[in-house]
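Record type: monomer structure entry
Structure origin: computed from sequence
Chain ID: A
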Amino acid sequence: MEDVINDVLDPAKSPIITKEMISELAHRVAHESVEERANSNKLTGEWIVFAKEGGNNYYLCLNTHNAGDQQIADRIKEHCLREFPFLSTYVGEHSA
């Protein structure tokens, strides 16, 4: 993962991070890793948790199928509510 980040965000390519770089990073992190796992027959079945708001999908959490709903909700509360306050509708108020 670190190699992908360093490759995409290489300051030699651009001294500033552009929208295109972020888009490439998101694509490579999301798609290449799944493709590599599929090619190695190592797809294990994770949950990709997202919320829809204003016509957009907000990807919040990746977790295994054996993680309980409460564990997933707690992770989203801890890591996502500050940036996406509309999530309190789904997971309750942030307690921090």
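Annotation 1: The chain has a mean pLDDT of 84.
Annotation 2: The first helix runs from residue 2 to 8.
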